[in-house]
Design brief:
Elements: E1 2-8, E2 11-17, H1 21-24, H2 28-31, H3 34-39, E3 49-52, H4 60-66, E4 77-78, H5 86-95, H6 98-108, E5 117-125, E6 139-146, E7 159-162, E8 170-174, E9 181-185, E10 192-193, E11 199-209, H7 212-232
Antiparallel strand pairs: 1-2, 3-9, 4-5, 5-11, 6-9, 6-11, 7-8, 7-10
Helix pairs in contact: 4-5
Length: 233
């Protein structure tokens, strides 16, 4: 508890302020449930992927949701173009830290040390989003972290781990519930997509990529795309 003083109409009033240390001193151990990631099964068919529900712990989840960047346009927006609050910043720092990197390296048996990372953020989905793709060959690992409400109420917008380039041939369907983590290793057959949905859909996408040139090129591409989307809003 901290005490402070303020002056009201010539009188000095003492005010007690209670700080929640769990919310003001969050580090990666408070934010991310790394034990749950270690326990989660690494699926190998149709490609390598891991799903971890409730990967962000409370009260961190609510605090991060409140600090989520506020923007209206659809599409993937580079993190560098957004403003956000301190708890969202701490989440990004945790994802971009060595502890999470080592956990993903262990899970997927891949060396990520020294590999550049890239972040984009989504807030809204267009009806045309969710088309089937594998991600580009420049990406090594894709991380999707959903920051929606606790339970996703819609049929659309649930990402499918596909066995082929057909949306109805899927091995798993992942609802973007708040705090859910999906990680997969990119390959020539890492097909994924979702049924059409239009509306709010919050997600952080993080990638480990093969070179810093990829980061610069992709961020420039997203910057130009964002500029045109803002002109249309």
């Amino acid at each position: 508890m901290l005490w402070g003083r303020c002056r009201l109409s010539g009188s000095v009033v003492e005010v007690a302020v209670v700080l929640d240390t769990a919310s003001t001193d969050m580090n990666s151990d408070h934010i991310l449930d790394l034990d749950a990631l270690d326990r989660a099964e690494r699926n190998t068919q149709p490609y390598e992927y891991v799903v971890v529900p409730d990967f962000i712990r409370e009260p961190a989840l609510s605090l991060v949701q409140a600090d989520y960047p506020r923007f209206g346009q659809p599409g993937s927006i580079p993190l560098s173009q957004l403003t956000y609050g301190p708890f969202f910043k701490r989440l990004i720092e945790a994802l971009d830290g060595e502890v999470f990197e080592r956990a993903i390296s262990r899970k997927f048996h891949v060396e990520l040390s020294g590999k550049p990372t890239m972040f984009t953020v989504r807030a809204r989905c267009r009806a045309s989003d969710g088309k089937i793709h594998t991600d580009s060959a420049t990406k090594i690992i894709t991380v999707l972290l959903y920051l929606n409400d606790a339970t996703w109420p819609n049929e659309g917008g649930r990402l499918r781990i596909l066995r082929s380039d057909r949306l109805d041939e899927f091995a798993a369907e992942v609802p973007p519930d708040g705090g859910t983590l999906l990680v997969f290793r990119r390959s020539d057959h890492s097909y994924h997509g979702h049924e059409s949905y239009e509306g709010p859909r919050r997600a952080i996408q993080m990638n480990w990529v093969r070179s810093r040139l990829v980061v610069g090129r992709e961020q420039f591409r997203h910057k130009i795309s964002t500029m045109f989307k803002r002109m249309k809003v």
